[in-house]
Amino acid sequence: MTRSFLSLLLLVPVLASAAPESSAPQAAVRRFALLVGVNDGGEGRARLRYAVTDARSFGDVLEELGGVQPQDKLMMMEGDRAALESALARFKSMLSAAATPGTRIEALIYYSGHSDEQGLLLQKDRFGYRELRKALESLPADVRIAILDSCASGTLARRKGGVRRPAFVVDASSAVRGHAILTSSSEDEVSQESDRIGGSFFTHNLVSGLRGAADMSGDGRVTLHEAYQFAFHETLARTEETRAGAQHPAYDIELAGTGDLVMTDLRSTSAVLVLGDLVDGRLYVRDAEGRLVVELKKYAGRTTELGLQKGRYTVMRKLLDQTSQAEFELGDGGRTVLPASAFRTVQGELTAMRGGGAMPVVEAPVSAGVAEHAGHRSRFVNVGLFPGLQTNDFMTGGAPVDNSLSFSMGVARMARLDGVALALGGNVATDTVEGLQLALGANVVRGDLSGTQLSVGSNWVHGTAEGLQAAVGLNLARRSGTVGQLAVGANVSGTSLAGAQLAVGGNWASGDVDGAQGAVGFNYARERVAGAQLAVGMNWAAQARGAQVALVNVGGDVRGAQVGIVNVAGRMSGLQLGLVNVSRELESGVPVGLVSIVRNGQFHVEAFGNDFNYANAAIKVGTRHLYTTLVVGMGNVEGARGPSHWSTGLGLGGHVPLTERFFLDVDVVSHTLYDWDASFSGNRLLHQLRMVAGLKVARGFTLIGGPTFNVLHDTGGEDVRNLSRLSRSDAGRVLLWPGVQLGMRI
Questions:
Q1: Confidence of residue 270 (pLDDT cuts 50, 70, 90)
Q2: How many CB atoms lie within 10 A of CB 22?
Q3: Percent residues over pLDDT 70 in the chain
Q4: Which of these three, 294, 318, 350, is where a domain ends?
Q5: Residue 374 domain-assigned?
Q6: Is residue 373 scored above 70 in pLDDT?
Q7: Which is more confidently placed, 644 or 424?
């Protein structure tokens, strides 16, 4: 049996190369947008301030950078249910009129306003989510996108019994069908707007991302996936401390195709702001009228480009506790580079608080070391044994202290660290850390980390970690950013991670992973992995874009490769290589293994006789064009009473549909023959090349039959005797003969 299986493996490349390939012709893209903004949600609801503003801002970025022509943009502001129904009808007519051969139509509906768990609230009326989904699905477009910035809008994205799919799978060279729904909040959350930014948190961050802040690949294009990820993390970060609480954008994706849906192309505008490599900090870009156009967290070491309209702008930068400002002017044509040297320190000013009074805003001057934080003391060095027995506590009377250097024989505690902390026991920072924490016990940061944590025990970051965590025990980043986690024990990322998790034990990411997970034990990604999962034990990812390599690989939506003993995928596009391959839906690619089960592929049971076995039963499983077959049979030689032998066989083959009712199967099957009264040991191998035609007589019943070519030999080199009545040879080292098989498939 082993030799049979090895001989079959030699045929895998040939059979795999025979699998049909599909290619999607390039198509021109025309994008339409319906933009709806309604501040009035009806009696008893507070009138919004920025719903119309948000709709106009989103429409502007689509027209400037998103390929939407002015005549293809439809606006509906401050209307009721009847106005929305009229706008949807007009929008549908615009799409129908634009449909031409060779053109892919993309339709986008954006709504900003009030809503509840049942639908959109338009003045005194309600437009239900079921109606909205029906209207979206009826649009005559190849790709349909809905973006809702309203309370409880996640109800539209929720689908009963459904599964979140990874975003967003189209570009101009792809043939796709389906829809994408993005919502500003989950089904039981409120969506929030802010006077500070002059709009809603979600739309503000989404527009900032579309103008280039979300371009993580640096190719000058922002995809729907990049824009959503940027808006999600920025919205969550900006609303966690608000009175209404954290706001979690949601999505529902049902798209089929390849590539990424490019939402905006920065190369299509002549006014580009280039933020230099050395620029870092949180940046606020305002136009000449003081409106906040783009907000982003910029990291040193990479260039970021923003597509803006021509005009004069001011950029405010917050870095640590320092505020600086730069001014520039964008004209038509060319790229304006803004270096770090263009920023100048600004002093604080009194700002009015809503409800009366004034609050002094103190902006610290640029200085070496750690700037004084509100309510904090600053000391360059801290030396001690434990909290309470350290210079931070002796010299400040218990006030929070920021340090640049800290040394402790036990446990050191500081508020903020901008430098190095060394301890035998542990380091605890109640605020942020920018620098290095080194301990034998544990390092704890209750704020954000930008730097490195090294410990024998564990590293813990309550906020965002950007840098490296290395431990023998455990690394935990509750809200990960760009981070490398190295551990002998385990790595845990509370949200998304861009970087690498490497552990002997296991890796756990509750959000997306853009990078790699490597472990001896297991890798888990609750959302999407764009990169690789490598493990000895098991890999699990809701969506995988790249490679999963382990003994057991499990993925919800996989585009790439799964290599292991057992591979399981919900939707598979690529290669599955293993002993057992299972997928619910195979879009493209091929599974190669001992058993490959595809829900939308083949699963057939066959019963047939041939010239050496009078009875055979077989199972065929696989894709539409490639299958694996397992065969069990029994037969007798001429003159024998009753069965003289039985056989087991394994084969690989290709399925060729010729018409709706007629097909042809071509395969190679290797059988091991056993004497009927002997134990489970057999040295005789029979290899078959089969060409079997099938005719579907009725549903669930097909007649099959065709010629075979047979090779019989003994693995020990002994002579073998003839099994077939169609062979004229009595015995020999190797017997060759043509044969036949006839039977049925059910």
A1: low
A2: 7
A3: 84
A4: 350
A5: no
A6: no
A7: 424
Could you read off the pLDDT of 530-572 as tens digits, one per residue?
999 999 999 999 989 999 999 999 999 899 999 999 999 998 8
Terminal alpha carbon distance of the chain: 27
DSSP 182: E
Are the C-beta atoms of residues 378 and 371 closer than 8 Å to each other?
Answer: yes
Note the residue count of the chain: 746
Q: Say which residue the tokens 């693995």 belong to.
A: 715
Which residues are paired to 517 by β-bridges?
A: 501, 533
The residue to which tokens 């449909």 are assigned: 99
Say whether both 278 and 261 belong to one domain: no
Residue that is last in its domain, among 237, 268, 299: 268
Tokens at 592, concatenated:
């190669």
Domain of residue 621, CATH code: 2.40.160
Give the CATH number for residue 108: 3.40.50.1460
Residues 260 and 279 in one domain: no
- For 125, phi then psi, to 5°, come to -110, 165
Closest alpha carbon to 24 in 428, 435, 573: 573
Q: For residues 210 and 79, state if they share a domain.
A: yes
Q: From residue 619, how far is each of 569, 628, 661, 687, 708 by CA, in Å?
A: 22, 8, 20, 18, 18
The mean pLDDT value for 694-709 works out to: 93
Looking at the fold, whether 282 and 183 belong to one and the same domain comes out as no
The tokens for 256 are 């089929």
Does residue 382 sit within a domain? no
| Whether the Cβ atoms of residue 98 and residue 134 lie closer than 8 Å to each other | no
Q: Where are the beta strands (DSSP E) in 216-310?
A: 221-223, 250-256, 262-265, 272-275, 281-286, 292-298, 304-307
- Cα distance between residue 174 and residue 179, in whole Å: 15
For residue 105, give its domain range.
29-268
Share of the chain above pLDDT 90, in %: 38
Task: Please give the Cα distance from 558 to 350 (Å, whole number).
Answer: 54
Dist. CA 142–CA 130, nearest whole Å: 20
Cα–Cα nearest to 204, from 178, 230, 185: 230
pLDDT tens digits along 99-112: 888 888 999 999 99
pLDDT at res. 263: 87
* Residue 163 sits in the same domain as residue 293: no
Mark 184-214 as b/e (b = at least 16 C-beta within 10 Å): bbbbebebbbbeebbbbbbbbbbbbbbbbbb
In this structure, is residue 648 part of a structural domain? yes
Report how far residue 407's alpha carbon sits from residue 439's, in angstroms, rounded to the nearest whole number.
Answer: 10
- Report the distance separating Cα 163 and Cα 67, nearest Å: 31
Asked if residue 105 lies in contact with residue 68, where contact means CB atoms within 8 angstroms, the answer is no
In a domain, 696, yes or no: yes
Q: Is 164 found in the same domain as 80?
A: yes
Amino acid at 522: F
Report the range out of 59-68, 224-233, 473-482 with the highest average pLDDT: 59-68
* Number of separate domains in the chain: 3
Q: What is the CATH number of the domain that holds 336?
A: 2.60.40.1120
155 and 90 in one domain?
A: yes
Answer yes or no: do 144 and 241 share one domain.
yes
Q: Which residue has the tokens 């809701």?
A: 542
